[in-house]
Amino acid sequence: MFIITVTYARPLAEIDQHMSGHIAFLDKYYKAGKIIFSGKQQPRTGGVILAHQTTETEINQMLAEDPFQQLSLATYSVMEVVPTKWDKRFDHFIERPQ
């Protein structure tokens, strides 16, 4: 599981001009089952994405498709997390060793 922090590198007006492309990027990976949630940080300095069923290499390949990265509008921090405790409502997102 990966927590991806998106930090805007350009003014919000420029970010907003490319938001529809960013949302299309997110939708592609929601449909592929790779993203669990995404959202804007408050205050609005970037966003957060929670991804699963993937590898760090795949995450980097995914992010290369994001218009925010392609246009140098944002930077990304990728952190892998191995959950050791969770609420039962989160069970179907947890990747258990085979």
Topology record:
Layout: E1 2-8, H1 12-17, H2 19-31, E2 35-40, E3 46-51, H3 56-63, H4 67-70, E4 74-80
Task: Report on this structure.
The structure is a single chain. Helices cover 32% and strands 27% of the residues. It has a single domain (2-43, 51-82), classed as Alpha-Beta Plaits. It has helices at residues 12-17, 19-31, 56-63, 67-70; strands at residues 2-8, 35-40, 46-51, 74-80. The two termini are 16 Å apart. The protein is elongated and about 40 Å long. The protein is an alpha+beta fold and 98 residues long. The chain has a 4-stranded antiparallel beta sheet, covered by helices on one side. β2 and β3 (46-51) form a beta hairpin.
Short description:
The chain is an alpha+beta fold and 98 residues long. The chain has a single domain, classed as Alpha-Beta Plaits, CATH 3.30.70. The protein is 32% helix and 27% strand.
Per CATH, the class reads Alpha Beta
Oligomerization state of this entry? single chain
Shape: elongated
Give the class from helix and strand content and strand pairing: alpha+beta
End-to-end Cα distance: 16 Å
Rg, Å, rounded: 14 Å
Question: What is the CATH architecture descriptor?
Answer: 2-Layer Sandwich
Helix content: 25-40%
Describe the main β-sheet briefly: 4 strands, antiparallel
Regions with little confidence, pLDDT below 50 for 5+ residues: none
H/E series, N to C?
A: EHHEEHHE
Approximate strand percentage: 25-35%
Averaged pLDDT: 94
SS element count, helices: 4
CATH topology: Alpha-Beta Plaits
Number of domains: 1
